[in-house]
């Protein structure tokens, strides 16, 4: 019998309780022992809730209770959550979390604390919600040198982009719909500016390289500048537009990590990932391409991933599960050095100038658009493309990288 | 240091050697110790091969060598491979295999032998080649009651169907091309009749239910009856045609397992799985849908999965990795009882009779086809649809289930 404490009785925390309750028999069987939720830590009381008698307000009750072997941290944030996680691990209690902010910021430190105390810090739910991706990277793709990871890691922005593509909506309208549906927060910054995806690709890139990737050093660009006109041109060329979180090895000792909107060929497997779905596309040197697809957010999918971690902890009590994520910083390549093709939307009045400067690409014209034109460049470094765009000033109406 | 023996120096066996060689540093690190190939068992000699000095012809040399801790069985078949696997496990040597035939037939017995001898029998490469699917089912989706699994599990037939769809070819021509490219065997029966996919879905269904599913009891239908005309009608209705290996829970104690061509909506994630790629689409009661996509065959992808098993064995020496697959037989539901929609291609001369009998569906007509017409039925049991088709005899030119 393993006793569990859940920290934070919000969306994911109550989901964890629901998954363990609904799939009780199965979860116990797979954990190879009985599991029981003993405490739920929250600031609030929950009168009438079937678990109301388990709610406590003082973390020390949990920390001091030797019966508690596994803690689910579903609070979020990097303040109290850090303190609770750290002290739980120091007591030899395993922690399973959905808190990507905390994992991205303190991952290697907390993993080390867990190792030192013969317990585990698991975070399958921190990336891709319910999609198994942390465990496949740590346990399955172990014979591979991973060459790149390309993810659609944020459901909110993917929903907005899908709406824009399918219904020709502009960003602001699609955002409003996402907010009405509860897919976007009232303050959508963390999602639409790419910060959420950035933390997640930092975690995946750290696992891919075995070294630490600081999310704050990752080049991050959101989707607020994408317009319905961009989608019209993308469609004409057989592309869609996705917010990609991407890492690729740049030589043997550097990784290029970034979050930005990309034009993706319509026939690429990741192009079919729509609405709030997420996917992670991984390229290894032996396996080639593989993809992991599913619900990247939501109460039960995320909780399911947390509970799968709880089961893994139960199966490995007193044993440390292998995870390579050193404290040493991974070197990041400069985005400006990368050579690729770019899409550009330019003002009609500057068409000749622009095309002359971007010699060698391909012009795209759409019927009924008098004000702008599209252009797909030949491969060039981002630095060179930047310079050209800067010199053209207001004549450049939009620009998107091409995958 | 762990010493490894490879049984069978064919495509997959030589791939295993190549993966361990090429990714040596990384593989050793992830296995948390050095790995070395000590023996390669084969009937032939390989003069000039860099591993020629490791080749032996007598399995007993491997069996009697206490240094050998892990064996890769990449021979195939259920005769000698069974004997070697069984006796290795009885000696406490872990076995990692790509041999789906052996796993489908003797899985629960060999798992039990491994458990009794404190070692492991792992078979990630037996389904979906390099795609991690066995481990996600066993380690990741553990909080889920799996409701269904839908797989494209055979690369040869998927290549043929993709060719037929894209180039309007008939089955025979597409098969010939697959044979020329080395994607299909000279005797293609195991692939095109669905037997290979059947063994794989038997393995996945056993892991999904925890009980044993006998592949010989699974309803299996191949793709030899699919024509270019079927694809033309499918396209007209927004479908493609895929050979699906599918299992779904039918009540709490039965599973419906089958292999058959299905019409799949073009917007379904599995519809974009083309050429020799495989995918497994899993629906759980908490997570909802998830999909695992990649190379389902080929030397290095398959070998990569075998080596990931080797690494897992190295990490778990002397410890049994949890896997639920009992000897008890899982009850199978009768395919005839299932209600679904069907596509039918009928002879023009019998159009009125057919449509009258299939009241409630939808007629599809294609320009330039004088000899036949298409029809999509309303939902009905397979038994009823069979009866109607049988009563119509030669007037039924083709029939395909709809997903």
Question: Can you walk me through this structure?
Answer:
The structure is a homodimer of 403-residue chains. Chain A has 403 residues and is an alpha/beta fold. In chain A, 36% of the residues lie in helices and 25% in strands. Chain A has 14 helices and 19 strands. Chain A has helices spanning 11-22, 24-31, 59-64, 80-90, 100-116, 134-140, 155-167, 171-180, 189-192, 195-209, 228-236, 299-315, 351-357, 382-392; strands at residues 2-7, 35-41, 55-56, 68-73, 94-97, 121-122, 146-152, 219-220, 239-249, 254-265, 277-284, 288-295, 331-332, 339-340, 342-347, 362-364, 372-376, 380-381, 396-402. In chain A, the strands form 3 sheets. In chain A, strands 7, 8, 9, 10, 11, 12, 13, 15, 16, 17 and 19 form an 11-stranded mixed β-sheet that branches. In chain A, helix 5 (100-116) packs parallel to helix 10. The model of chain A has no long low-confidence stretch (mean pLDDT 96). Chains A and B meet through helix 1, helix 2, helix 6, strand 12 and helix 12 of A and helix 1, helix 2, helix 6, strand 12 and helix 12 of B. Strand 12 (288-295) of chain A pairs antiparallel with strand 12 (288-295) of chain B.
């Amino acid at each position: 019998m393993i006793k569990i404490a859940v920290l934070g009785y919000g969306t994911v925390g109550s989901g964890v309780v629901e998954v363990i309750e609904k799939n009780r028999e199965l979860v116990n069987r797979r954990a190879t022992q009985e599991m029981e939720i003993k405490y739920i830590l929250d600031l609030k009381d929950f009168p009438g809730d079937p678990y109301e008698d388990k709610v406590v307000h003082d973390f020390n009750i949990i920390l001091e209770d030797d019966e508690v072997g596994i803690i689910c941290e579903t609070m979020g944030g990097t303040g109290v959550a850090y303190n609770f996680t750290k002290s739980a691990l120091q007591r030899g209690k395993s922690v399973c979390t959905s808190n990507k902010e905390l994992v991205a910021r303190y991952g290697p430190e907390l993993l080390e604390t867990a190792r030192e105390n013969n317990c585990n810090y698991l975070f399958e739910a921190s990336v891709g919600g319910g999609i198994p991706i942390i465990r496949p990277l740590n346990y399955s793709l172990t014979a591979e040198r991973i060459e790149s990871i390309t993810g659609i890691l944020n459901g909110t922005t993917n929903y907005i982009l899908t709406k824009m593509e399918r219904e020709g909506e502009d960003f602001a309208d699609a955002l409003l719909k996402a907010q009405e549906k509860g897919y976007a927060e009232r303050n959508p910054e963390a999602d639409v500016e790419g910060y959420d995806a950035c933390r997640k690709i930092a975690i995946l890139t750290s696992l891919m390289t075995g070294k630490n990737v600081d999310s704050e050093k990752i080049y991050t660009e959101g989707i607020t500048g994408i317009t319905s006109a961009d989608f019209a041109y993308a469609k004409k060329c057989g592309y869609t537009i996705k917010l990609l979180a991407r890492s690729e090895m740049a030589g043997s000792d550097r990784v290029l990590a970034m979050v930005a909107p990309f034009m993706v060929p319509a026939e690429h497997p990741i192009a079919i990932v729509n609405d709030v779905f997420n996917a992670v596309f991984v390229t290894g040197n032996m396996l080639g391409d593989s993809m992991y697809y599913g619900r990247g957010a939501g109460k039960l999918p995320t909780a399911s991933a947390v509970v799968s971690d709880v089961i893994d902890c139960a199966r490995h009590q007193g044993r440390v599960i292998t995870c390579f994520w050193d404290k040493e910083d991974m070197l990041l390549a400069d985005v400006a050095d990368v050579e690729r093709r770019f899409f550009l939307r330019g003002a009609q009045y500057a068409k000749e100038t622009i095309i002359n400067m971007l010699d060698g690409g391909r012009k795209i014209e759409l019927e009924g658009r008098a004000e702008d034109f599209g252009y797909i460049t030949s491969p060039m470094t981002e630095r060179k493309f930047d310079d050209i765009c800067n010199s053209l000033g207001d004549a450049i109406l939009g620009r998107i990288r091409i995958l």
